[in-house]
Amino acid sequence: MNNFNLYLGQDVKLTPNEKSDTEYEAEVIAKDKTGIDLKVLNCEPESTSIFEEVREWILCFEGSNSLNQLDVEIKNISTRFNLVLLVNPIGEVRKIERRRYNRVQISTAIRYRNLKQQESKTAHLIDVSASGIKMEVESIIDLQVEKKIIIDFTTLDEFPISKIKARILRIKVNQNSRGKVRRYYIGLEFVSVTKEQREEMIEWVQQQKNS
């Protein structure tokens, strides 16, 4: 079986279809003639319902000079220690466009809150683009993939929008966390953003990259 140059330890992403915002991060932990074993990183072992309901997924991974997509079918689900999926490729690898918006690394504190709550919590901003952000938090209580939250950017110098609604796309443990406190990376996509606001953010990101 052709394993499409996937290697052990490679980070990949799973999405049910090209139009979906749902995305799970996974790691290639084994591959042989029976298929490819993927350890899902941002999903609890008991949270298997979506993989039981949807058997065909799109596997996204980095190629030598491009981002690639591969249709796969889930053949087996294991939850003994971690959530592990055995998948078989369907069809051929497709090359896809790289990220549409430029992204700039910004290290600063920001605030976020649930839609129905006024109390906010602190997160550490890692990077930002006109489509979303990556941030780091100490706790993922009340946070899960697909949940929408409010991001407060008032501490971010001259950012064109003070508060934005965002959808959580992925949650991943920071493997470099040290000490007793485990930290988590949260990837978010902005929602309910106007064309004008998007253009303002594109300009702001470009200014930061040029500074």
Automatic annotation (TrEMBL):
Domain PilZ, residue spans: 97-206
InterPro entries in alphabetical order: PilZ_domain
Any one GO MF annotation of this record: cyclic-di-GMP binding
Protein origin, superkingdom: Bacteria
Organism annotation: Halanaerobacter jeridensis
SUPFAM superfamilies reported for this sequence: PilZ domain-like
Coiled coil feature spans: none
Pfam families: PilZ (PF07238)
UniProtKB keywords: Cell projection, Cilium, Flagellum
Name of the molecule in the record: C-di-GMP-binding flagellar brake protein YcgR
